[in-house]
Amino acid sequence: MNKISRRAFVTSASAAGLVGVSGLALPYYSRANQRPAFTHGIQSGDVDATSGVVWTRTDRPSRVMFEVSSRENFVNPLRLAPLDTSPASDYTVKRLLTDLTSDQDIFYRMVAADLADINAVSEPIVGRFRTAPASKRDIRFAWSGDTAGQGWGIDDTGMKIYAVIGKHTPDFFLHSGDTIYADGPMKDEVELPGGSKWKNKVLIDEKRKVAETLDEYRGQWKYNMMDRHVLGLNAICPTFYQWDDHEVVNNWSDSKDLSADDRYSEKNIHVLAARAARAFHEMTTIRYEPSEPGRVYRKIAYGPLLDVFFLDMRSYRGANGTGMQDTVTPQSRILGEQQMKWLKRELANSNANWKIIAADMPLGLVVWNDATNKAGAEAVSNGDNGPAKGRELEIADLLRYIKNAGITNTVWLTADVHYTAAHYYNPDKAQFQDFNPFWEFVSGPLHAGTYGPNDFDMTFGPELKFIKAPTAEQGQNLPPSAGLQFFGLVDIDGATEQMTVRLMDRDDNELYKVTLDPVHSA
Question: For residue 447, what are the β-bridge partners?
Fold first, then answer.
């Protein structure tokens, strides 16, 4: 059999097809529970030109056998040493596939054998991804954030937007954070305006309360992977993960005080964050960094046209406060000293034409720590529209460095605020002006309540080029069925090297489009 094209595989292996062929999302697949089963599908991530991470989960202690091939029919596959699952990692297993060929379709297959009865073997489960190119070619990827938030879970339609993203056959999907809502309990039904109801047709006990234990945090992840559209995209498209606050609890920092929140018996934010981080790394395809186990910030090199820099704006921040400090201190930082050094170094060393900075929070939008009273800085901006202060100081230093170091073609992508927008940062309109103009694109939610719009802070001179958010008449926390669920698509042309960014909704309507010309250094 000839090598199958990426689009042909995606077409033939739709979400429904993958479920039928591979046993995705069928924890009761094996008859009479005699054989192991894969409970939550298969996924890949952090793919570059020669490697990528793959993941799955079994229903019992199992030995998982791996086969890798460049052919869909697995003729003469590479067979890897098996890995065992155990209760210690909640029966999850992930591994880094190495020594792959660049710009190649990679098919991977797993079979699980029961450790208690090694002759009891599961049905196979199959996934695919494409490695990054070593030469210039067209690249397409999608991004968004915010999954299963504000009580909106899996209804009859399901998380439809994941299937819509899959139809565009992206090289990868960048999940910008709020990958779960560990602090957002769900009910079976939610009353909607007009007398109708939202019905969460799929619900598990872990989603009926806030997550506190390690198993409850794990359950938040399992819930998302009970959706057929999520499973379908996971099987055919790598996901590059980052996190934000709802993986732990809303607006968490060292200043988070849960003493008055009766939903929590565990009040220690550091204990909760540690459990959440472990679940995040167990349940995703994020790479393991030996120098700092648990690290989220990293760079993925995706060929000569693209490097992606993933920020962690949560783990190293100082406590949330007014954000009005006059100097950069550990308390005024949002990235932290070590991450900032890493980012500057990696940006300066990058030879890629385009440098995507994947941020889990926007730069110029005001996100209040106390939304009711409009007080405290939760994101970068402090809301005073003046010279850089607080967390803005660290970002101002970064923007100045990018300008002085001659680093070109930086584009910021983010989610977090639950609407979609295009921002152009213009130093001529800014209070802090020592930087080159750049774009920031916002997209989300994937499947959560729709909010916004947020106010601008003019410290860095953002100009609003496009916005789609709820109207005053529509109100806030709109359900996914209202249609205001968003993702972004980025296309880089291998010949012209232009970058085209499109903002899309869950019905696959193109809302906004802009093509950016690359700046070529002298």
Answer: 147
Non-local (6+) Cβ contacts of 421 within 8 A are 441, 442, 453, 464, 465, 466, 467, 468, 469, 503
pTM listed for this prediction: 0.94
Instruction: Tell me if 518 sits within 8 A of 172, measured CB to CB.
Output: no
Q: Summarize pLDDT for 413-468 with one digit per residue, the tens.
A: 999 999 999 999 999 999 999 999 999 999 999 999 999 999 999 999 999 999 99
- Asked if 208 and 189 count as a contact pair (C-beta separation under 8 A), the reply is no
Tokens 């003493």 sit on residue: 259
Tokens of residue 64, six digits: 């998982």
Beta bridge partners of 502: 489, 513
Q: Render pLDDT for 97-116 as a digit per residue (tens, 0 to 9).
A: 999 999 999 999 999 999 99
Indicate the helix (H) or strand (E) that contains 282: helix 269-283
Which residues make Cβ contacts (< 8 Å) with residue 130, sequence separation at least 6? 6, 47, 103, 104, 105, 106, 171
DSSP secondary structure, 149-218, as one string: -TT--B-SS-SHHHHHHHHT--SEEEE-S--S-TT----SEEE-TTS-EEE-SB--GGGSS---SHHHHH
